[in-house]
Specification:
The complex is a heterodimer. By secondary structure, chain A is α+β, with helices and mostly antiparallel strands. Chain A contains three helices and five strands. In chain A, strands 1, 2, 3, 4 and 5 form a five-stranded antiparallel sheet that branches. The longest helix of chain A is centred in the N-terminal third of the chain and has 42 residues. Chain A is elongated. The N and C termini of chain A lie far apart (about 100 Å). By secondary structure, chain B is mainly α. Chain B has two domains: about 80 residues, RNA polymerase sigma factor, region 2, helix turn helix motif (Rna Polymerase Sigma Factor, Chain: A), CATH 1.10.1740.10; about 90 residues, Arc Repressor Mutant, subunit A (Orthogonal Bundle). In chain B, helix 2 packs across helix 4 and helix 3 crosses helix 4. Chain B is globular and about 50 Å long. The chains are: A alpha+beta, B mainly alpha. At the A-B interface, helix 1 and helix 2 of A face helix 2, helix 3, helix 7, helix 8 and helix 10 of B.
Chain lengths: ~160, ~180
């Protein structure tokens, strides 16, 4: 085959492929595909709105709880420790999972709050001689960057 | 929506904007569909289109505009999903899809010219493309039928630019041999 033949053959091949591409331009997915995708998109949006609403309401609930606890047990100004810092020790439980523990998080922080001692009952940690109205107990709540509380541990301060 | 670029449409669609999604879909579903028809058959093409768009809607943050156009991203996703789908079939070999193997064998298979008397020229060309080994078929679909440049095709095929070039040359040579009698008509 001469170079001219080869060039001619090459351009004929290109023309044949162009003709095929023009013919194929009509090919299209079935209209049902777009309908199904739009319905999935709506379902995703609904789920996202629900998650956002849950997140916002959880944060709001946590804030309200915090405010309520503060109102019931105002800590007032920070008191100077009566003993040297070195003499104060803390014992704490393990972190115990809360309902949102399975929601992934990238960063988190612990917030120390005071909760009614009855909270211990909910976790099966109340001492044998526990009575209703036994005051409050300190707790560290692990909160994700999304505001959802993942875990809690209860803390007791020991003074030597 | 007509003046909005693909990347913005994708972002809006991921946030739940149905109008943006419809525009993006109408711009690119045909290319994804054609690619799927050639690479894994017409029966599976609708499913591939659906899975591809679903996949890109769900995986936010995965599109990087610096790595190529949205159409390359969509075709790359379609390719990934098709490979997963094909790998479930026993006869599938990943090497066939990624390596330039069995070129001579492809020539020896029954050529579309055998049916020439019964088919239109265009159908013969289509059959010739479909009879190419997957790696060669893919480069013809992307570079010749979808008119993608080598960079975009390399993006979709996840291979170096030089491989696209050499594979395209071999694929064209194969097609020429298969279609020798037809395109000189």
């Amino acid at each position: 085959m001469t170079r001219n033949d080869s060039n001619r053959h090459d351009s004929e091949l290109s023309a044949a492929l162009r003709a095929l591409a023009e013919e194929d331009a009509k090919l299209s997915a079935s209209p049902d595909v777009e309908k199904r995708l739009l319905s999935e998109l709506r379902a995703i949006s609904r789920a996202r709105r629900r998650r956002t609403w849950l997140g916002v309401s959880s944060v709001a609930a946590a804030l309200l709880l915090g405010i309520a606890l503060y109102v019931r047990h105002p800590s007032g100004t920070v008191q100077a420790p009566s003993a040297p810092e070195a003499a104060i020790a803390e014992v704490a439980t393990e972190f115990l999972p809360l309902p949102y523990y399975h929601v992934p998080m990238n960063t988190g922080s612990t917030v120390r709050i005071e909760v009614p001692a009855t909270a211990l009952v909910a976790f099966g940690l109340a001492p044998r001689d526990f009575r209703e109205g036994d005051g409050t107990i300190q707790a560290d709540v692990l909160v994700g960057e999304d505001g959802l509380a993942r875990a809690v541990r209860f803390v007791r301060t020991l003074r030597n | 929506m007509n003046g909005v670029d693909d990347a913005a449409l994708l972002e809006q669609a991921r946030r739940g904007d149905e109008g943006a999604f419809s525009e993006l879909f109408s711009r690119h579903q045909r290319a994804v569909f054609r690619y799927a028809v050639y690479m894994c058959g017409a029966d599976a093409a609708d499913d591939v289109v659906q899975d591809t768009f679903m996949n890109v809607l769900m995986k936010s943050g995965r599109y990087d505009a610096s790595k190529g156009a949205v159409i390359s991203y969509l075709l790359g996703t379609a390719r990934h999903l098709m490979l997963k789908r094909l790998s479930r079939s026993r006869s599938f070999s990943m090497e066939e899809f990624t390596e330039d193997l069995n070129v001579e064998g492809a020539i020896e298979r029954e050529t579309p010219l055998d049916d020439f008397a019964r088919q239109e020229t265009i159908e013969v060309v289509r059959a010739a493309v479909q009879s190419l080994p997957p790696a060669h078929r893919e480069v013809i679909v992307l570079c010749e039928l979808e008119e993608m440049d080598y960079v975009e095709a390399a993006n979709v095929m996840q291979c170096p630019l030089g491989t696209v070039r050499s594979r395209l040359n071999r694929a064209r040579a194969l097609l020429s041999r298969k279609l020798g009698g037809v395109i000189q008509e």
